[in-house]
Amino acid sequence: MQRAMETAATGMFAQELKLDVLANNLANVNTTGFKRSRSEFQDLLYETLRSPGAPAGDGNQIPTGLQVGHGTKAAATLREFTSGSLKQTGNSLDFAIEGDGFFQIIKPSGEISYSRDGSMKIDSQGRLVNLDGYLVQPTLIFPAGTREVRVATDGTVTIVQDGQTQAVEVGKIELAKFANSAGLEAVGHNLYMPTAASGDALIGAPGTEGLGVVSQGFLEMSNVRVVEEMIDLIATQRAYETNSKVIQAADEMLRSTANIR
Predict the structure, then answer these.
(1) Rounded to an integer, what distance in angstroms lies between the CA atom of residue 84 and that of residue 82?
(2) What is the dihedral of CA 216, 222, 117, 124, to 10 degrees?
(3) Residue ranges per domain, the chain?
(4) pTM (two decimals)
(5) Which residues touch 5 (CB under 8 Å, ≥6 apart)?
(6) Helix, strand, or coil here: 77?
(7) How many CB atoms sit inside 10 A of residue 130's CB?
(8) In Å, how far are 122, 203, 204 from 138, measured between CA atoms?
(9) Phi, then psi, of 125 in degrees rounded to 5
(10) What is the pLDDT of residues 230-255, one digit of tens each?
(11) CA angle 178-216-135, nearest 5°?
């Protein structure tokens, strides 16, 4: 009975973690470019009381063994980089990536981070920055008097200045992709950092090297599907309750054993 209680406790801990992940998904249902996470679990070690194939006498073998598991553990939180729906904003500084790829964002430390959030702004020096004021890489500078910004699907950025009708190219937006996007480390602020698991970034122009294209005037919304998250939420709650019932049942069996006269 003690083993049953400890095993059920691991199940309750696992469902608590899954609930935390679901809560974060639902909290970010309206976060631009957010990618949902999925909890993954593994069973714990088994106590082998009798090995499969052990001799049973008279030259026979036991066809099945006798093993008792010790519960479950959290193995990973897998981030799903499926595309979210696109929302048209009409803002010339809003960009969405249709397909694979990340915008490159320079953190204050000088490190390059990566984001699917295309909500961009122009700072006091005319540079293209994200919502936190971090520079976009490569650096794009819009001179004073810029009245129109145009971004082609291949990332080419052109502007039209006051008193002019001819568009002038000022640079290009480059995207990055990874061999294993799920290996990226989320650091908050809609940013990801590369790790040994993700591999190095492959940089290229939108529409090349398997990278997606850039859509101006659109934002990519979260890929969280509320209905699916709510179904998982109910299933998680029921699993937690079931494990708690196992602990109650084991406790009652121990009580009955202790009350034997």
Answers:
(1) 7
(2) 90
(3) 2-81+224-258, 86-220
(4) 0.87
(5) 246, 247, 250, 251
(6) strand
(7) 21
(8) 14, 11, 11
(9) -100, 10
(10) 999 999 999 999 999 999 998 888 88
(11) 60
Residue 160 is encoded by which pair of tokens? Answer: 């039209």
Q: Which residues pair with 69 in a beta bridge?
A: 46
- Residue 58 identity: D
Query: For 79-90, what is each residue's pLDDT tens digit?
Result: 999 999 999 999
Q: What is the CB-side half-sphere exposure of residue 62 using CA atoms within 13 A?
A: 11
- Alpha-carbon 203 to chain mean position: 21
Q: Where does residue 183 fall: left (phi above 0), alpha (psi -120 to 50 degrees), or beta otherwise?
A: alpha
Q: 179: buried, middle or exposed (CB in 10 Å: 19+, 13-18, 0-12)?
A: exposed
What is the length of the chain? Answer: 261
Question: Measured between alpha carbons, how far is residue 106 from residues 93, 139, 202, 224 in Å?
Answer: 18, 9, 16, 27
pLDDT means per 10 residues, the chain with 261 residues, are 86 95 97 95 87 76 82 93 94 95 96 96 94 94 91 94 88 96 94 96 94 96 96 96 92 85 68
Start-to-end Cα distance in the chain: 19
Q: How many CA atoms lie within 13 A of 256 on its CB side?
A: 7
pLDDT of residue 45: 86
Q: Rounded to an integer, what distance in angstroms lies between the CA atom of residue 88 and that of residue 216?
A: 9
